[in-house]
Amino acid sequence: MAERVEAAQQRAGARDAARDSLAQERERAREARRLDDVERRRARDAAGETAAVARRRGPGAARTGGDEQGKVQKPRDTRSYRTVVDADRIRELARRGASLTGLAGAFGVSVEEVQAALDDDEEGTGAGS
Predict the structure, then answer these.
(1) Rounded distance, CA 105 to CA 2, Å?
(2) Is the pTM of this model over 0.85?
């Protein structure tokens, strides 16, 4: 029995030693990567390249969009856009739960016009049934 306990303790000690050596190896690798990163940053700074440009470029990354990346986009001018006011669309959206004021705002019409389109539907379905 004592032999088994001793063997188990030896295995546990060996596992602890292996775990410690792996942790030390990972720490050395982490430190080496950190030093490499510092050297790369210094070389980039010496070449006049900013960190933002280097991050954007990335290893093997295609440069799409050029200098527009990272800039704030201007909102699109939608003043000349027109929404097609279709009574069927209004009815469908109302059936899905859209409010009268929401529909009026989305279609750019008055609440009364939305109500009239919905009333036309009620009259049409009432006559057909």
Answers:
(1) 85
(2) no
